[in-house]
Write a structure and sequence with these properties.
With 180 residues, the chain is an alpha+beta fold. Helix content is 18%, strand content 36%. The structure holds fe (ii) ion.
Length: 180
């Protein structure tokens, strides 16, 4: 079992403040995304979250040999957004997909590779880029923005992902899957 950070300490007041700050950051993220995901606003919110060691402190981020694993960090009570930590073993990747709803993500540790595709049946690979720790990106709902995120490296990778959907809808309602 992978446990990131130091052992959880008895500091409930500090944790409450950190949780409130996280919710506030997510509220700003949603406000930016609701404005058609303009500019780099969601990315600007993800970046400081990546630099906050408290975000994943003490969380058991268990990987799986079958596929990358999604761990819930925060679910908006009104179902407007969800924040997840994803754990990727080497060789694991998402399907090729576009987004029905906005998404923002950042790399906490390890290296992820993002492949881009042009629309087609099947989609046509166009380029790729490496995303190391601290890198963050965002994307609006756009049928022509097709990509695949995966761990092509040799060590475990962890990312955080924010979606404009409720937790129980954050898979099928967000991703417009184009290929396995
Ligand atoms: Fe995506």
């Amino acid at each position: 079992m992978l446990v990131l950070g130091l052992k959880r300490r008895d500091r409930s007041g500090e944790m409450a403040r950190e949780h409130a700050a996280l919710i506030e950051a997510l509220a700003r993220l949603v406000a930016a995304a609701d404005a058609a995901c303009l500019g780099a606003a969601p990315q600007a919110v993800i970046a400081p979250l990546l630099a906050d060691p408290a975000l994943l402190e003490g969380r058991a981020l268990v990987p799986s040999a079958k596929r990358y694993v999604r761990h819930l960090l925060h679910a908006d009570p009104l179902g407007r957004h969800t924040l997840l930590a994803l754990v990727w073993q080497p060789g694991q990747a998402s399907p090729v997909h576009a987004h029905h709803l906005w998404c923002a993500f950042g790399v906490v540790s390890g290296v992820l590779t993002e492949h881009h595709f042009a629309p087609g049946d099947p989609p046509v690979p166009t380029c790729c880029r490496l995303l190391g720790a601290g890198a963050c990106c965002h994307g609006p709902a756009a049928p022509h923005l097709i990509h695949r995120l995966g761990n092509c490296g040799t060590t475990l990778a962890v990312s955080i992902q924010a979606y404009g959907a409720a937790w129980d809808e954050s898979g099928q309602r967000v991703n417009d899957i184009r290929a396995a």
